[in-house]
UniProtKB/TrEMBL annotation, chain A:
<comment type="similarity">
    <text>Belongs to the purine/pyrimidine phosphoribosyltransferase family.</text>
</comment>
<keyword id="KW-0963">Cytoplasm</keyword>
<dbReference type="InterPro" id="IPR050120">
    <property type="entry name" value="Adenine_PRTase"/>
</dbReference>
<comment type="pathway">
    <text>Purine metabolism; AMP biosynthesis via salvage pathway; AMP from adenine: step 1/1.</text>
</comment>
<protein>
    <recommendedName>
        <fullName>adenine phosphoribosyltransferase</fullName>
        <ecNumber>2.4.2.7</ecNumber>
    </recommendedName>
</protein>
<comment type="subunit">
    <text>Homodimer.</text>
</comment>
<keyword id="KW-0328">Glycosyltransferase</keyword>
<dbReference type="InterPro" id="IPR000836">
    <property type="entry name" value="PRTase_dom"/>
</dbReference>
<dbReference type="InterPro" id="IPR005764">
    <property type="entry name" value="Ade_phspho_trans"/>
</dbReference>
UniProtKB/TrEMBL annotation, chain B:
<keyword id="KW-0660">Purine salvage</keyword>
<comment type="subunit">
    <text>Homodimer.</text>
</comment>
<keyword id="KW-0808">Transferase</keyword>
<dbReference type="Pfam" id="PF00156">
    <property type="entry name" value="Pribosyltran"/>
</dbReference>
<dbReference type="InterPro" id="IPR050120">
    <property type="entry name" value="Adenine_PRTase"/>
</dbReference>
<feature type="domain" description="Phosphoribosyltransferase">
    <location>
        <begin position="55"/>
        <end position="173"/>
    </location>
</feature>
<comment type="similarity">
    <text>Belongs to the purine/pyrimidine phosphoribosyltransferase family.</text>
</comment>
<keyword id="KW-0328">Glycosyltransferase</keyword>
<comment type="pathway">
    <text>Purine metabolism; AMP biosynthesis via salvage pathway; AMP from adenine: step 1/1.</text>
</comment>
Length: 190, 182
């Protein structure tokens, strides 16, 4: 669900966040209009609004785990975790986490990849959210949900700054709600 | 680093929240795992607070964080002190125009990149990473920022491995760490 359709209609913070995102055409390859959040991180007010909106939503939901997907999920997740009093759990590419891990494979456009989480980071019964910068097909987020559910955590929601509306991400998210702040920016004059 | 005589009482809890993993990524290395610190909500909060207390009100407009664990500590600090966050990344991750700096690894070299236009000449910056070992990565980050006219005020890490002499490698750039691990 988009924030603007779910309680934040007309909230000026959403426009500020959207305006701060830069579109980089043809990255990583021809035809992709890449939504670059690094410009959002340079805009202190808009970056703060981004974190604040997620914090306002999750602070009273009894969430004890914020899981963030490497690497851009790391830029948003910890600030949310700190503000709501939850742990931050990094979900990483293979071989980055030093301790014992569990792994979940997922499909890419071409080939497969794998997401890992430390054993013992999350306990059965904990209420968790997953944070990433953007959801496209939902493949990565689905793998994240499966990792958390395998250890008995309850995934309450996935939160992303940007959601590609035309992709039916909802179907790939194991029935878990998806909360998205903004749609992708169009490039001007293109 | 924080003086031993008057060590902030929060430091010992931070230190004990860090897990050591022997022989990762290879035999002989005692890996300092900060993921357990991130699970301890008070110790993680204290970590950020210690940096914010040091850097707030010092006219710092840029917090540069080194991929990937610098991305965990840098943004909360940046948000609290009113600075921008600038990710310093491995090659081909940043989508826009970048400047690059090559640096030495134990075997071979690697490259660090920063977006063109992220920072302006004259800005005052901090560089954040979870740990300083030899200092090679931090030196590359310093060079990238200085090349575009930024003044690097200090490098800040949660952990220092003093035997690897990273502090010396930084030369005249000050280093602030919370925990020194021998």
């Amino acid at each position: 669900m988009f924030a603007a359709e779910n309680g934040l209609k007309g909230d000026p913070r959403l426009q500020a966040i959207s305006n701060a995102i830069r579109v980089v055409p043809h990255f990583p390859k021809q035809g992709i209009m890449f939504q670059d959040i690094t410009t959002l991180l340079l805009d202190h007010k808009a970056f703060k609004h981004t974190v604040d909106i997620f914090v306002e939503r999750y602070k009273d939901m009894d969430i004890s785990v914020v899981a963030g997907v490497e690497a851009r999920g790391f830029m948003f997740g910890p600030s949310i975790a700190l503000a709501i009093g939850a742990k931050f759990v990094p979900l990483r590419k293979p071989k980055k986490l030093p301790g014992e891990v569990i792994a979940e494979a997922y499909e890419l456009e071409y080939g497969r990849d794998c997401l890992e989480m430390h054993v013992g980071a999350v306990e059965a019964g904990e209420r968790a959210i997953v944070i990433d910068d953007l959801v496209a097909t939902g493949g990565t987020l689905s793998a994240a949900i499966r990792l958390l559910e395998r250890v008995g955590a309850q995934v309450v929601e996935c939160g992303c700054v940007i959601g590609l509306r035309e992709v039916k991400g909802q179907l790939r998210l194991n029935g878990k709600p998806l909360y998205i702040l903004v749609e992708p920016r169009e490039i001007d004059g293109c | 680093m924080a003086s031993q005589d008057e060590q902030d009482p929060r430091i010992s809890k931070i230190s004990s929240a860090i897990r050591v993993i022997p022989n990762f990524p290879k035999p002989g290395i005692m890996f300092q795992d900060i993921t357990t610190l991130l699970l301890d909500t008070k110790a993680f909060r204290d970590t950020i607070d210690l940096f914010v207390e040091r850097y707030g009100g010092k006219d710092i407009s840029v917090v540069a964080g080194i991929e990937a664990r610098g991305f965990i500590f840098g943004p909360p600090i940046a948000l609290a002190i009113g600075a921008k966050f600038v990710p310093m990344r491995k090659p081909n991750k940043l989508p826009g125009e970048v400047i690059s700096e090559e640096y030495s690894l134990e075997y071979g070299t690697d490259i660090m990149e920063m977006h063109v236009g992220a920072v302006q000449a004259g800005e005052r910056a901090l560089i954040i990473d979870d740990l300083i070992a030899t200092g090679g990565t931090l030196c590359a980050a310093i060079k990238l920022l200085e090349r575009v006219g930024v003044h690097v005020v200090e490098c800040a890490c949660v952990i220092e491995l003093p035997e690897l002499k990273g502090r010396e490698r930084l030369g005249d750039k000050p280093l602030f760490v919370l925990v020194s691990s021998t």
